[in-house]
Structure formats: C-alpha cells, structure tokens
C-alpha cells in the first residue's frame, strides 16, 4: 500500500463541504460528522508478501488545507494467536513494522492504534481472503478513450480457477526514461566575480545529466470485480491510460502492476469511496453519508475514523514499451518546458554570469564569426539540459532496454 487514503482524504472532505454548501441552497443538510475536529485517516494494508509493512496515519482538514500527519502514535498488529507486530514511526505519519512478516491464511489480524493524545482505535478481526488469482498478463496498447483521447492503455488479465477471488484492487508504479532535449557535452561555469564572465568547459563524465529515470506511484483508486459473471476472470482490464501528449512516454516506459485480492467488506468500502469521489455524486438523490470502514474508536468517543485495515494477497507483473513501438515516425510528446533559447554576447556578461552562478541555465551552443572568434553563448532553461531536475541519473535495478 502506498498511502492512497492520505491522498484521497483531502479530496473527500473538500467534496463533503462542497456538498453541504450546494445542499444549503435547497434544503438544510446536517451530516452526523464532527467537521469541527479533524478525523483520523488510516491507510493500513498487510499482504501475503514477506516484507516490512507500512501504515500511514494522518488527520483530515477542511477546505483546501493540506492534511496533517499523525505522529507519535503507538501502532501494532495482533493476530489470533496473540503474536504482536509493532510498528515504528520512520518519518512523520509513516509507521513501518519492526520485523518482516507475511499475512497467513486462516489467521485473523487486528490493527491497534494509540494516538499521542491517548485516543484508542482498533479494527475488527480481518482475515486473508481465500484466493489463487494470479496476473496472467500485463500488456500495453495504443488506444482511444470514449472521449476521443489518443494514448497508451495498460491492460491486465487475471484468472482464479477456483472462483474465490472475485474482488480486486490495482496499484501501479510507473518508471520512465527522461532524455534532456537540449543536453550538451559542454557546460558554462562562472568566472571571477570581478570579470563577471563565463567559461565553456566539458561536463563531468561521472555526473550523468542527459539520461535519467523517474518513478511515481499510483494515486487513483482502481478496482473491479467478477461477481455475477461466468468465471473469476479479469479480461483486458484497463488499469492506466496515458495521453499521447504526456512526456513520460516520450522514450521508454515501464509499469509495475500490483493486483490485490480483497474481501467483500474491503471492496465495498473502496467502491463507496470511489462513488463518493465522483463529482456526479454531489448531485445525486442518494446521499452517501459517512463512509464507514472497519476501524473504530475504543474509548466511547464520538469521533469517526476514515479508512480501513486491509489484509490482501498480491500478484504483480511488469511491462515495458517504447514510444516508437506505437507511434513510429510521429513527433514526441511536448517536453515539460518549451526550452526557449536565449543568446548572450560573450565577454562582460553580468546577467549570464548571474544565471550560470545560480545554476538556472544550461549551455546548448555558441555563435562564432567567420574568423572563428566567439561572439555569443546560447543557453536554455536548466531543465532542458539537465535531466536530474526531473529524475535520478541512477539506472533502476529492474530496468531493461
């Protein structure tokens, strides 16, 4: 789990307030939620993977304020044999298990939280869903959305021959290659303060700035189910769409897809969350009310909790593709910057000197007269010649060309 509910909580509460304001134009609406106080937001998932697990705690806020992390809490998971798995806060709001462990079949787990203010919260006993579902294929294909957008779709196929899985959630981690479009093997360095001049030198060969890689985790809720169909098979399910104008697919792109098998209770929680986050739900006749998970206060408090404790089994696969595989002989997507060039005369150049000293531009070319004498430097915004502003120059271990 990568902190999904931390990302959703602010959106959800902004929508709740919008709903109240809109409903106020027609009839009073008084939800039974303590909006005057922040609510605890819990994003907690353990899986059948042997690893250290993470739990995220935050506090909801009203309007457009950023959510606040919940620090200094005591967090632990207890199973039905009374084994305890304590978690330690490694950074504000992020709690990591002290030891590696995996969720085991037919064993119940409870999440227990004690906040720094002394409030106690606990989940209901939760078990790993019975399943044998595995991702059989992840593939990329050029596609067009219903609204006419051209781009790349990432699709998943999965199958459980026992028919026990049924409820699925997908997360992904995308990694893409970045090539600085105006990179040059040379660079400008500032001369002396007195001369206010710059010099062209070769780049450090040990500091790669032309090719980088960036990785981002999904921040959207992607769920599906096979209930009511002939067999427990997910077929050509679109987990990610990327507009062909998105620069992240300009060169080579990879997506790691994770499939989580959920219990019906957890799936219904996410389904309500997904329905509520849609703008159309604000105007529907059916008021969604407070989205109840499986975590509740233990000290008879009236405060509510946003979130759910999830125990899931996981299957994952990775896919790679090149832009040229699907858009042969077509222009690359626009870069994140227009990379407009600016020419500065050589010699006493205080403006260029300041730009170079503050590392805000990249050298791309120069102008020489007929005799070969230097007359001017041509520079672009630094981001156009230095990929490290957008990613890391370290090649990921899993990367394949």
Automatic annotation (TrEMBL):
InterPro entries, per database record: DUF4249
Domain of life: Bacteria
Pfam families in the cross-refs: DUF4249
Organism the protein comes from: Ulvibacterium marinum
Name of this chain's protein: DUF4249 domain-containing protein
């Amino acid at each position: 789990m990568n902190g999904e509910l931390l990302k959703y909580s602010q959106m959800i509460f902004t929508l709740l307030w919008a709903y109240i304001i809109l409903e106020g134009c027609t009839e009073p609406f008084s939800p039974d939620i303590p909006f005057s106080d922040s609510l605890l937001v819990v994003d907690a998932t353990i899986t059948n993977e042997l690893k250290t697990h993470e739990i995220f705690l935050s506090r909801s806020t009203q309007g457009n304020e950023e959510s606040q992390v919940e620090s200094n809490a005591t967090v632990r998971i207890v199973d039905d044999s009374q084994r305890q798995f304590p978690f330690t806060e490694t950074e504000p709001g992020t709690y990591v298990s002290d030891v590696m462990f995996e969720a085991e079949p037919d064993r119940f787990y409870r999440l227990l939280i004690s906040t720094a203010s002394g409030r106690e919260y606990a989940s209901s006993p939760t078990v790993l869903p019975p399943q044998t579902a595995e991702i059989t294929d992840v593939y990329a294909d050029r596609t067009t959305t219903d609204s006419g957008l051209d781009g790349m779709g990432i699709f998943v196929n999965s199958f459980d021959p026992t028919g026990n899985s049924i409820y699925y959630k997908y997360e992904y981690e995308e990694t893409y290659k970045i090539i600085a479009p105006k990179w040059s093997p040379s660079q400008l360095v500032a001369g002396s303060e007195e001369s206010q001049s710059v010099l062209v030198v070769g780049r450090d060969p040990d500091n790669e700035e032309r090719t980088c890689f960036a990785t981002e985790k999904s921040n959207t809720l992607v769920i599906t189910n096979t209930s009511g169909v002939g067999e427990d098979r997910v077929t050509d399910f679109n987990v990610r769409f990327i507009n062909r104008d998105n620069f992240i697919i300009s060169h080579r792109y990879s997506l790691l897809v994770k499939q989580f098998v959920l219990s019906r209770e957890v799936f219904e929680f996410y389904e309500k969350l997904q329905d509520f986050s849609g703008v159309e739900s604000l105007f529907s006749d059916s008021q969604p009310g407070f989205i109840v998970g499986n975590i509740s206060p233990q000290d008879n408090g009236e405060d509510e909790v946003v979130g759910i404790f999830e125990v899931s089994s996981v299957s994952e696969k990775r896919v790679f593709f090149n832009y040229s595989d699907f858009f042969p002989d077509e222009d690359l997507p626009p870069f994140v910057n227009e990379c407009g060039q600016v020419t500065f005369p050589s010699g006493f150049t205080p403006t260029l000197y300041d730009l170079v000293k503050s590392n805000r531009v990249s050298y791309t070319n120069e102008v020489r007269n007929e005799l070969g004498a230097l007359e001017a430097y041509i520079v672009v915004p630094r981001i156009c010649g230095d990929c490290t502003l957008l990613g890391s120059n370290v090649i990921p271990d899993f990367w394949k060309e």
